[in-house]
Amino acid sequence: MSARLEVTRSGPVVLAGVRRRGRVTDLLADRLDRPGWTGSVHQARMLRWDAGTRTAWLDAGSLGQVALPVRKGEPPNTTEPAVVQVTTEPREGKPAEVTRDVALPGRTLVYLPYGTAVSVSRTMPPESRARWRTVLEGGWIVRSAANEVETDRVTAEAQSLAAAWREAVEAAFAAQPPTMLLAAPHPGRRLLLDHADITEILVEDEADARALAPSDGGDGPVPQIGPVDLADEWPLYLQPEVPLRCGGNVVVETTRALTAIDVNAGSARDPALVNREAAREVAHQLRLRNVGGTTVIDFINLPKAADRRGVVDVLRTALGEDPVPVRLGTAMTALGLVELARMRRGRSLSEIFPAGEALPGA
Q: What burial class does residue 179 get, using C-beta atoms within 10 Å of its C-beta: 0-12 exposed, 13-18 middle, 19+ buried?
């Protein structure tokens, strides 16, 4: 099933969504007035070293102080500037976390400038995995999408990624730290990298068309200019209550510690039916809201263990379609609770638009 990437702007907000069969399945947003940092690369200046926690504290300029965890056996460099990449956004008074293991993602490859080995997706057949290890040199991760395109397209993307890194390195030599070398990817670019089935790109702004144009030898869909409906739809994804077709609803509330989701029967009479439909909707809402971290779902109590297992199975299947890694708890408790942890990929919608803040364009 092919998908379409849609990108629009609403005031200072850039919205990017993936639409399948008329329904938005994934949504990412960014603010031009408060841009995100995940994936950006910085040349940072060492401030101090905490031996107890093995954390190096760095000055990353406009990003502020950032924390660099240092592995055991890896001595910290306390004198030279460090080139680091942001892995976790600053949030709720916590600083951003960074890594020295810089990774520049493409549609078919991930370039590891400081890596020395070629890793190939396990979904590829053995002969393909062996071939890619002979085609590429240095640090690379070959994504499964590489098996679907011609070799010269992949090598063209490799050259493009390597060239982008060379430009960043040249900028680092010319600049006085701290300074940002590479900005965080455009939200539409992040969706392109996660969804190999995108065959169309529809944008309303020329700036987004330029940002999403293929830069790897022509591989990938070319953005087209046209009307996009996301600006009318996206405020709905911030509403706490989501109705279900069966008559029930789910309520999504984000706290500092976790995201809590409550399932209510409403006018529906079959609790097991409500729970199964809610399980599918929860998986959908996690993707729409870009929820990361721990989530606890309070399903309607089911006395039969078989019914509880059935709900968890539905949830597991729905979460299996998520391109972001999710760890699901083993079972539903007797009280109807299920826990999961979804990898953080930038800021959630609730972090970009805190409660009580007027929505741009609303």
A: middle
Which residue's structure tokens are 């949830």?
A: 315
Instruction: Report which DSSP code applies to 236.
Output: G
Token digits for 290? 């870009």
**Average pLDDT of the chain?**
90
Tell me the DSSP string of 93-138. TBPEEEESS--EE-SSEEE-TT---EEE-TTS-HHHHHHHHHH--S
pTM above 0.85, yes or no: yes
pLDDT tens digits, 115-131 = 999 999 888 888 888 88
Kindly provide the residue ranges of all beta strands, DSSP E only, lying in 256-324, ordered along the sequence.
259-264, 293-298
Query: Does 358 fall in a domain?
Result: no
Give tens-digit pLDDT for 306-339.
999 999 999 999 999 999 999 999 899 989 999 9
State the CATH number of the domain containing residue 261: 3.40.630
Apex 234 CA angle, 23 and 200, nearest 5:
45
Say what the pLDDT of residue 360 is: 56
At residue 57, the 3 state secondary structure works out as strand
Which residues lie closer than 8 Å to 131 by C-beta, 6 or more apart? none
Question: In this structure, are 245 and 285 located in the same domain?
Answer: yes
Domain membership flag for residue 203: yes
Residues in contact with 311: Cβ distance below 8 Å, sequence separation at least 6, in sequence order: 272, 275, 276, 279, 299, 302, 332, 338
Amino acid at 299: F
Q: Give how far Cα 130 sits from Cα of 139, 140, 161, Å.
A: 15, 14, 22
Q: Which residues contact 357 (CB under 8 A, 6 or more apart)?
A: none
Which residues form the domain of 308?
Answer: 239-351
297 and 223 share a domain? no
One-letter amino acid identity for 208?
A: D
Question: Facing residues of 104 across strands?
Answer: 111
